[in-house]
């Protein structure tokens, strides 16, 4: 006995009695027993159905021939062994809807579940087949004005991963009451995913939570604000310096607005060879962490006078004095309104750039696509440096970042190999 799933697209006229059209019967007079028939979707010209069929001796090819004999009323069809549903994605997130969207519907017959359990998932490690392409996007929303604002951010990021990396993202807003509950929840759900990404945490505790999770999580783990954003800012700085024929090695830098972004960026600046990196933040806890990682707590006056390179992080609501910067400095602001090059002298403004929050499309699909291909146990600094090179070597004058494209994503997918 075999169990088949039949997906059909038929004309609207044929949809009136699709069971009679295919000469199927619930009592199996000829070896084919109809288990269920469900309409999935209807548009202006056609109707989509999913049938579950038990076969007593009739193979898949014979079933296909019967469907084809129905003539032009059947527009498209697919026949497969029911267990094959479990060999691919159970949840198929796509950027657009077409006939393939029916893969989102998994067979629910108890017999299908039994076959899948007995043939494919008899051991716990077999579950890797299910979660292999599934990425968990998690946030407690505490970084945002209202916690539920995390949902639109997560949905946006899920779209980017599904569209450009071919993964199955699972966006989850965790309305945790405190950090301990958040950590326990992330630890509990990790078994459903091949990798995890945490974003949108309150900067006052984000790094502590991320560090603790890195110790206990058994799948690759990314803290978005500490890894993705610093990667982008570091790439922009490197490409901007090269465009202006400036050298980072041996220079003095400054990061205004610390937290996860500031700490992550500090690591890259030290790797680039900067001898001193000043840090400014109103939160003394962030300043203390910055110093422990090799940065130097400073005043804004010191930055104006001595920093060769200044980076203002995205979540730093500061307005700086445009007249205090001097010729020779490079200033990159990722927070809208922090500086205004139009108010600066020409020789100063030519190296000062006012932008906005860098978009995750430059790094998010490529990074998780690379992780998916290499399946590392942990994300290492060496892997991130290699990934960073895909943004540095392909930067252009227009924005100091390469245009997002399939070529860029392919290079990023292959960067960690």
pLDDT < 50 stretches: 99-106
Q: What fraction strand?
A: 15-25%
CATH fold description of the largest domain: Rossmann fold
Would you tell me the overall average pLDDT? 88
Total count of domains: 3
Q: Evaluate the radius of gyration.
A: 27 Å
Topology:
Elements: E1 2-11, H1 18-21, E2 32-42, E3 46-55, H2 60-68, E4 74-81, H3 110-119, H4 128-131, E5 134-139, H5 150-165, E6 168-173, H6 179-189, E7 195-198, H7 206-216, E8 221-223, H8 224-243, E9 252-256, H9 259-271, E10 276-280, H10 284-292, E11 296-297, H11 300-306, E12 309-312, E13 330-333, H12 346-349, E14 352-354, H13 364-374, H14 381-392, H15 406-415
Parallel strand pairs: 5-6, 5-7, 7-8, 9-10, 9-12, 10-11, 12-13, 13-14
Antiparallel strand pairs: 1-3, 1-4, 2-3
Helix pairs in contact: 5-13, 6-7, 8-9, 8-14, 9-10, 13-15, 14-15
Question: What report would you give on this structure?
Answer:
With 417 residues, the protein is α/β, with parallel strands linked by helices. It folds into three domains: 125 residues, 2-Layer Sandwich (Alpha-Beta Plaits); 86 residues, Malic enzyme, N-terminal domain (Rossmann fold); 188 residues, NAD(P)-binding Rossmann-like Domain (Rossmann fold). The chain has 15 helices and 14 strands. A six-stranded parallel beta sheet has the order 11-10-9-12-13-14, sandwiched between helices. A four-stranded antiparallel beta sheet has the order 2-3-1-4, with helices on one face. Helix 5 packs across helix 13, helix 9 runs parallel beside helix 10 and helix 13 packs across helix 15. The longest helix is centred in the middle third of the chain and has 20 residues. It starts with a strand and ends with a helix.
